[in-house]
Every structure is written in structure tokens, then in C-alpha cells.
Amino acid sequence: MSDSDLQDLATSVFAAADAEGSGFDADLWATLTETGLARLTLSEKVGGSGAGFAESAVVLAAAGAHAARVPLVETDLLAGWLLESAGIPIPDGPLTIATGDLDIARTERRAAGVLHRVPWARAAAGIVMLAGDSVLLFDPAGLQIADGTNVAEEPRDTVTVDGEITASGAGDRVGEHLRVRAAFGRAALLAGAAHGALAAAVQYAGERVQFGRPIGRFQAVQQQLALAAAEVAAAESVVAVAARTADADGFGAASTLFAVAAAKSRTSEAAGVVARIAHQVHGAIGFTREHRLRLTTTRLWAWREEDGSEAEWNDLIGGLAIEAGSSELWVLITGKP
Amino acid sequence: MSLPALVPPPTELPPRAAALRASVREFLAQELASGAWTPRADVWLSGWDERFSKELARRGWLGMTIPTEYGGHGASPLDRYVVTEELLAAGAPVAAHWVADRQIGPSLMRFGTEEQRQKFLPGIAAGEVYFGIGMSEPDSGSDLASVRSRAERVDGGWELTGTKVWTSGGHRAHAFFALVRTSPKDDANRHAGLSQLIVDLRAPGVTVRPIPLLTGAHHFNEVVFDKTFVPDGMVLGEVGNGWQQVTSELAFERSGPERFLSTYPLLAALVGELRGSTDPGTRRAVGSLVARLFALRGMSLAIAGALEHGHAPELAAAVVKDLGTRYENEVIDAARLLVATPPDPGAEGGFARLLADSVLHAPGFTLRGGTNEVLRGIVARGLGLR
Predict the structure, then answer these.
(1) pLDDT tens readout for residues B295-317
(2) What is the nearest CA distance from A323 to chain B, expressed in angstroms?
(3) CA distance A88 to chain B (A)
(4) Confidence band (pLDDT; 50, 70, 90) for A96?
(5) Domain residue spans of chain A
(6) Do B298 and A240 touch (CB under 8 A)?
(7) ipTM score here?
(8) Alpha helices, DSSP H, located in chain A
(9) pLDDT beyond 90 at B15
(10) Is residue B44 part of a domain?
(11) Residue at B99 is within a domain
């Protein structure tokens, strides 16, 4: 399937979903499962579609643009991948990933503790986490889950664990890969949400009439939308470059770490600018519950903080740059020939 | 609603680019070690060094995309991209050949006659023939279609009267492409009746006068035509097609690495000044600049790849120039705030001199090649707003 066919498929699937509902969208998930988009990058032998990260970025951008209420990054790029890496059979349904400290009794295959801000835990068929170099899988049925959300009202739940786990060893660099994968997935969603907010603002500017003409005819409004478009272009481009780098070099490579760090930093910086301009163009109506603009702008505000804000990733890049020094900075950016 | 594509897909440089890049880096390291020049900011305006241009030519790094039968190397625009970004990042003196290499060679290949190609291309590829730009006039800046320089039909050619301004390097260049009116202005079609003439800047009836920059440095010039004769053979492309030719020339020049690397030597010096710093605020400020640069380069390369495949992504090129030239200013602000060394225009080189040159040249970044406001108008048109 070509990238544009995949984009058309993803757009039609996500555009048809009910983005204004609340909580997990089971109907959308069923469609994603049928079309092979739910487990796009997992290998075919574990029921995935075996696609690359460039394809993943295309699908995630469409999910972000249409405010899909599903744990796509968590299921495919993170939890599913960890389970596949550890050779643990992957449960059907949406999965999620948790981080935190647990008391683990390995021999008895039991764990206890509290996990905070677990995405979509209430809807997940399995909760996966990495403890050292072990991959743990919990069945949510036996867990106590207290609802919480991010500023986009996406589930970020508190999970109290006290019971049986499935555990298996994974490679020793899995933890670093996991962090980079999470940032990549979030950056792709951000680029999509930014695109969605811009598209809404451009459409609104063409329809809303004030002073006898559509507000998009005023240069002051055009200049603002052009600034937003520049941010969206940069966000989409850097995510596409990061995806190509991950496809070529793998998530463990220094080149991929750098490209993904730049992608999460740049998309997070773009998020605030795009959301601000989209709201300014929409005026008061965009600030209301009844208007759909909030679906993308609240996600921009939520996701720019998740999986490392620009502060965290800029810190890493800045450290590498200062370490590289004057003469090697250019090599850091362009690569060694 | 759906938006137009804002940026083309990423470009992967061909495998041969790595060897080319390595050779350029090795050459630049030798040049720096020999003290032939000192890295400077905004070198493509101010770094005029004919010896350096000829050295590049000797290595096959000028006129790279010009076919071999005209003295060039028949290489791809992506090869030229690699060489160009390495030179700019090093702060090397590229101004002498800049305009000729970037846009005159490609324009001659697109619109030039066999005679014009034979006359100019071998010299451009040899680093011996330099060009300026003859677009703006005292009353025509962003509104280029309002140019008033006019060419009257005379026996065997055209007689040219008028004034061009902001011609960088015009006092040293051999020629430029002048955009002039060859038929009277028609208010119903302002873009009609314009033509490009190749004007010998040393010909009788051409006067070149300096327009000093605010620093007093001489890069800009005013070029006055007083009944200057231009033979028929020096009309570029078709008479009356000047507007289409010029706008295609602009699309090629808006998305190159010079639109975000003018202050790169300052960024490199800044990172050097910060050696050993462990302050998180400092690291974050530097990280943001480096992440932005990485993103800009990816976009610029994507457009270079699209151009190579015959697409002219006008919206994306305008975006790169708007973001890139604002970025060049952001580097200055970060450098000022992270290092307490004041700018020193009298220093030989290093951070203080690079900061001074960057601050003093910054107004030009967001003006040249189309002001950022005009570029955002192009983006707005691409979005369907106008």
C-alpha cells in the first residue's frame, strides 16, 4: 500500500469516528483492528501488519488530526512491541504501558504498588511495564483503577497493583528504545493535531464574515495563519525525518535518538503556537464546549507535556551539542560522512 | 476541510554524497589550518574572496549542476546542496560566486541561448565570472512588477534607461540580469511587458555607485543605466516573459541553506563558549536552537529533492525562508543572553566578532529575497485565503 493510499484509508477511518464522545471508542478500535491499523508495526507472526515507522507516522498523524479516542501508540509502538520483544503472547484488544516502581516478587510472579497516570488503563485488555530488563504484563481485571485524565480528557488512570503478573526478560537496551518510541509516537500525534487545528482555523477564517467579508481576507489574520502553517510544516517535516531515520537505523541508534528528540522538541514547541493562533482566529466560539476546536487544541496542550516536553528533549540535545563543541556540532546535526 | 501539502516528503541524500561531504570537510579544514580566511557570519553577502572561489572551482564545486559541455560537472542539485551547506556552516567566503552559482547558471540553462551559455557558463564554473541581481529599484521593492527601468528598441538591440538598487557585489561583478519594461505598463496586466536583459556592468552607459550598509561596509550598489546599449543576443529568454522567469528564479532561491545558516558560525562559537556548562537552562536554550536547525534542514532538503524531481513547492519554500530567517535572529538573541561577552566589530574573529556581525547584518535576513510579510502572503494564498 502506498503512503497516499494509507493516508486515505487512515483519514477515512478516523474522520468517521465520533471524536466528541468520551472515553475509549470501541467502535473505532474494532475498525482499526479489522483494517490492520491497530497493530501496524508489529510483526505479522504476532498478528501485526509488519509496517514501518514512516507508515506509522502517517496513521498517527491522521489519528491526532481527528482526535481519535484510542490508545494507538500505547498498543502498537510500546506495549505490543515490549511483549513481542519478551516473547510474551499478546492479548487481544487495546493495550497500555505504565511506568513506576513496584515491589516485585519474581519467583512468585507477583507484584504490588501504585502506578500513576497510566494511559487508557480503564479500557485496556493488558497493562505492560518494564521493570529493569523484565517485561511485566498485568491483567487489568484484577486491578483497582481510579479514573484520572490529562487536559484533553484522555484517560490517565491510577492503577493499584497487588497480584499475579506475567514476566519475561527482554534485551538490556529495551528501556532506552521504549523512551524514544514513546516520544516518536507522541510527536507524530502532535503533528497531526496541529494539522487538524490549522485546517479548522483556515476553514473558519474562510466562512466567518465580519466587516462585510470573510475574516481570512484580512492580512492581519492571513499573517497569523501563515505563522501557524509554518509551525505545522516544521512539525510534519521533522516527524517524517525521524520516521525515516528510525526505519533506516532502528530505535537504538544515536541518529534516531537525536532525530526523535528534535521531533518531540519541535512538535511540542509548535503545539503552543498553533493552538494559540487557532483559538485567536476562531474567537469566542472556539472557547466553548460546543465547538470541536477544543478536540485538537486540548490534545496539543496535553501531548506537548507527555513523553517529555521540549524542556526535557532540548536538555538532551543541548547537552549533546555542548559536548560536541564548535567543531563537531555540525557533524551532530548532519551526521558523519 | 483538507489543507494543501505544506512540505514535500523527506529527501534522502544519495550514498555518493557522503564521500563528497568528506572531501569538502577535508578541504575546509586545510584552508582553516592555513589561516586563509576567518569564519564569519553572513558570508554569502560579505565574504568576497576570488582566490577561494577559484579554489572551489578547481575542485569541481562551482557550477556543479551545469552540464559538462559548458564547463560544469553535470551533478545533481543535491550534490550542490551538500557542498553549499558545508561552506556556509564553515563561515567560508562564498560571496564572489554566490549569485552566479546559485541562480544565474540554472537560469541560463533554463532560458539562455546557446551563445549566452557558451559565453558565461564556463567562466561561472571556473569561478572567474561573477554576477549580481538586478531586480529592485528605488520605487520597487516587494512590489517588483512596478519596476520602471525601460528598454527601448534600437537597431540591433535595446537602449536601457533606469536605476537598479541593492545589487550586492555589483562593483566587482561582471554582469547581472536586469528586469526591465520592454513595453509600457498595462494596468490590467501588470506582469506583462517585462523582460530580463543580461547587462555587462562594465559597459559604457552603466554607472555603479556604492550604497554603504549601516556599518559603512560596501556590499550594496546602485546601478544606473544611461542609454545603455544591450544587444539582442543578450535578452534572456523571451521578450515579455520576464515576470515568469524571475518568479521561477525566486522559487529556487528561497529554500536553500543560506536562509537559515547565516548565523550558524555564531551558533558554533556559542557552543564553544559554553564548553563544560551543566546549567539546565543553558542546555535547553541551546537544544531548542539545534532542534530547530535540524527541522529546518530537513524541510530545506525535502524541497531540494522536490525541485530535483521537477516540482516547485512555492508554499514550502516560502515557509522555509520565513522560519529560517526568523531562526537566524533567534540564534543572535540566545547568544546574547547566554554569554556575557559584548559584540565587538573590531575583533579579528571568534564569538564577539561573529555576534557583532550577526547583530549588524540581521535586518537584511528577513528582507532579502522577499520580505517575510510578502512570503506569508504567499503561504496564505497557498492555504486558499487569498
Answers:
(1) 999 999 999 999 888 888 889 99
(2) 7
(3) 36
(4) very high
(5) 1-70, 94-171, 174-334
(6) yes
(7) 0.97
(8) 3-15, 26-35, 53-65, 72, 81-86, 174-207, 219-249, 254-282, 293-303, 310-334
(9) yes
(10) yes
(11) yes
